[in-house]
Amino acid sequence: MPGFELMGQEERDAVNKLFDDGGVLFAHGFDSLRKNRYHVRELEAEFAKCLGVKYAQAVSSGTAALKIALIALGVKPGDEVVTQAFTFIATAEAIIDIGAKPVFVNVDETLGMNANELEAAISDKTAAIIPVHMLGVAVNQDEIHRIARKNKIPILDDACESLGAEWNGEKLGAQADISTWSFDSGKTIIAGEGGMITTNDKELYIRAREYHDHGHMNIPNVPRGRDKCRLTGFNYRMTEVQAVIAKAQLKKLDFIVNENRRFYSILEAEFKKIKGVKFRKIPEKCIPLCDTLILQFDNKKIADGFVRNLNKAGLGTKNLPDAVQWHFALYWEHLFDILDTNKNEFRSLLKPSIEIIERSVAIPIMVKTSMKTIRKQIEVLKETMSSNY
Prior knowledge:
Shape: globular
CATH topology of the largest domain: Aspartate Aminotransferase, domain 2
Strand order of the largest sheet: 1-9-8-5
Order of helices and strands: HHEHEHEHEHEEEEEHHHEEHHHHEH
Mean pLDDT: 96
Oligomer: single chain
């Protein structure tokens, strides 16, 4: 989540320039006032180039991106969408909001979708699969994609937490039928709010573009007030203000990723020297974003002790465990009626995920971290492990 650390003069200058150039905040029209600058369009082109994909559609949030992508895929009320139990709640909310039902599978030690459970979760109602690349690391894409192709089910990547990660020489997220991204204040790059949809499929792109803008087809040389539509849409547009901030942040992406990986490598190398330390599993083809280093202890007792020691030292965690209630389906009791389950049944279903998540601790890697902080993290881990081994 380093984007917020680097908010500064570049973003301020970009916003001021927007106002100097006419102050048009809407992404469409007002041609005579905006000095031929369409910042949302520019962001879309730059983002698509960064990801190495053909199409990008900017939207109002990562949550909106998920919903729009599902609609572009043709997911409808009564359908089922398979996703993983460890994800931000927005993944489930987007599925439910269009009248479909989320079907949860457990995660494995990558903290991504357990491919071994995927096939059993697929039914004749399954309309899409949403793997979630959590905390900067890809799921086991090869096996998940093989199962999806076998069953002729599209894949929607929720890559909101992993901008900058790579898979087999490509940017992560370029491999799915359609992918979603977030620019909220806790992501790799930020715009306060905002999101993006990417795809190489022109028809998916067109459906997403039209739905997010009340169905507008934006026919060339046709005034917007006389434009046509062929589907019912909604308003999930990004503003020009969000776009200029996101463009300024996108220019910093390489620096962010490089700094993440530099500090991650330092911390990982020192942690490896400590007896009993184990790390989250990373798929062989994945080069992670490295904004989070995740330790997987032998049991919950040791993990809890490490977190207590971190807190005593004035240090924190990221999602695991500090925000786990928003990132693990076990805690979403308000959805149990929709899922046709109860807490005991759901706990039994998610037992493998519970076992992994309860002994996992995520340490945030900051772009502006200091060696003093790193030394404190090392000492806290040494103290924790020495009392258990």
